[in-house]
Every structure is written in C-alpha cells, then in structure tokens.
Design goal:
Order of helices and strands: EHHHEEEHEHEE
CATH architecture: 3-Layer(aba) Sandwich
Largest sheet: 7 strands, mixed
Number of helices: 5
Number of domains: 1
Distance between the termini: 39 Å
CATH superfamily: Gcn5-related N-acetyltransferase (GNAT)
Strand order of the largest sheet: 1-2-3-4-5-7-6
Oligomer: single chain
Length: 176
C-alpha cells in the first residue's frame, strides 16, 4: 500500500533513511560519515518536513510496516522552469528488487505538480540507483554538481524524465 506520509511516520522514515544510506553508499561515502548518521536527528528533521506542507512525501507499507518512502515537489534547480523533482526515494534494502521502488516512483510522479519533466539527482558512483532510474525511464541530462559529504567532494548527476507527450529539452544548466 502506498499512501501520504503522516507525522507518525517520522521514526520509520528516519530509520529507513539512515539504514539505507549505510548500505547503499558503503564504498561511495566515507565510513566515518556513514557511522555519524543519527536516526534521532533524522526523526526531528522528518517531523518538521512532515508538518511544513511544502513537500509531497509518500510511504509504502507492507504488513502495516513502512518499508519505503519518497519525497518530491517543485524543482529546486535554478534552470527548472516548470519541472518537478523527486527529492529522494529510499527502499529498505530487504525490499530491493521487489517492485516497491517502481510503484512508489510512479505514485510520486503522479503526485507532483503538472510539469514539463521530472528531475532527480543521484551520486554518479551509485550504479545500483542509476540502473533503477534507467529502467523507469530517466536519463542523464548532462548537468552535474559537486556536493560535500563529510570530508569528501562527490559528484551528483541530474536525471530527467519527460512528462507524457512531452519532449526533453536540452539542459542549459551549469556543468561542474
């Protein structure tokens, strides 16, 4: 079942957020940074996000337990125009490759404002996520940016999926 997240989902979302980071980004992000992630701090952050009304947040449940979540809204990029953005999607590792991520992304895309296209950012070294995004129709649009996690600079690449019956326009974003 996929539904809108509620304030009561903050703890489950935070646990998935931290736990998935520690597995998905092992070997990409430093071990020290991953070890420093705090479920308690994420709970507070998620409680705020779940009450601010600025972000669409969905959760997927199985047997009454939250097993995945996604968030999105209007694109945060300067060159966005009318684009929407999937800010994040995290599926508990024990539920990877079960179809829940694809279902959750479809529902998230349907929940976002009318758009020319939907974008998302992914670490360039996160090959598992990149394969997933390719399978569901996202393609890199040539835009990159550097982000700092802990004491490391990492590269993110932007992926884009056109809305039904729309063409992807070339990006005019700044490439790093």
């Amino acid at each position: 079942m996929i539904r809108e997240a509620t304030f009561q989902d903050a703890t489950a979302i935070a646990r998935i957020h931290v736990g998935t980071w520690r597995i998905a980004y092992a070997g990409i992000v430093s071990d020290d940074y991953l070890a420093s992630l705090s479920v308690e701090k994420r709970i507070k952050s998620w409680e705020e996000r779940l009450t601010d009304g600025r972000t669409t947040i969905l959760v997927a449940e199985k047997d009454g337990q939250v097993i995945a979540w996604a968030s999105g809204g209007a694109s945060r990029d300067a060159d966005a125009g009318s684009d929407a953005e999937v800010y994040a999607i995290y599926v508990s590792p024990e539920h990877w490759a079960c179809g829940v991520g694809s279902e959750l992304m479809t529902r998230m895309e349907d929940s976002l404002p009318d758009r020319g296209s939907t974008t998302l950012w992914v670490l360039q070294d996160n090959q598992r996520a990149i394969r997933f995004y390719h399978r569901i129709g996202y393609r890199p649009d040539g835009t990159r940016k550097e982000i700092r996690l802990g004491d490391a600079d990492l590269c993110e690449v932007r992926f884009r999926k056109s809305a039904p019956n729309k063409k992807i326009e070339p990006s005019h974003g700044v490439s790093a």
